[in-house]
Amino acid sequence: MTTGAVVTADRADIFSPTARGLIEALNAELSSRYPEDGATHFRLDPEEVAPGRGTFLVAGRGGRPLGCGAVRRIEAGVGEVKRMYVAPEARGAGIGRAVLQALEAEARALGCVRLVLETGVRQPEAIALYERASVCMAKDLEGR
User: Fold this and answer.
1) CATH code, domain carrying 26
2) Cβ contacts of 82 within 8 Å, gap of 6 or more
């Protein structure tokens, strides 16, 4: 992987072949990490990334798509990061960081002052990226 080329993160149509390929790769990876019956991979509906509500980005280097991510506004002032993915061969090369920074900018443009995300315990690469980017974590507690 060449690390000298500039990383780009551009808006993309969630139905484009490039976006679909990245989402399929993400879903395949999630299925391999969470193979148990009943495991779900949260989807992202196109209207959630429609102009004024959110955006879907494809990231790459040298014209080669290597990752993606989305942000959607979930309530006034609050956005949520969704569908973050970086191809395994490109991890550690700044693609995820570039996507997250671009999503933060998109969230600000949507009027968000807070950005939340959720990831799974079997995704250490994602957890490491988010720990480097955030100083606040939260956990919803179920009533008992």
Assistant:
1) 3.40.630.30
2) 42, 44, 48, 69, 70, 71, 72, 117
Q: What is the pLDDT of residues 34-60, one digit of tens each?
A: 888 877 777 789 999 999 999 999 999
Q: Which domain holds residue 112?
A: 7-133
Distance CA 65, CA 113 (A): 29
pLDDT in tens, 58-95: 999 999 999 999 999 999 999 999 999 999 999 989 99
Asked whether 29 and 61 are in contact (CB, 8 A), the reply is: no
DSSP output for 55-84 = EEEEEEETTEEEEEEEEEEEETTEEEEEEE
Number of domains in the chain: 1
Residues 3-32 pLDDT 10s: 568 999 999 999 999 999 999 999 999 888
Q: Is the dihedral of CA 54, 11, 69, 109 positive or negative?
A: negative
Sign of CA dihedral 24, 29, 32, 33: negative
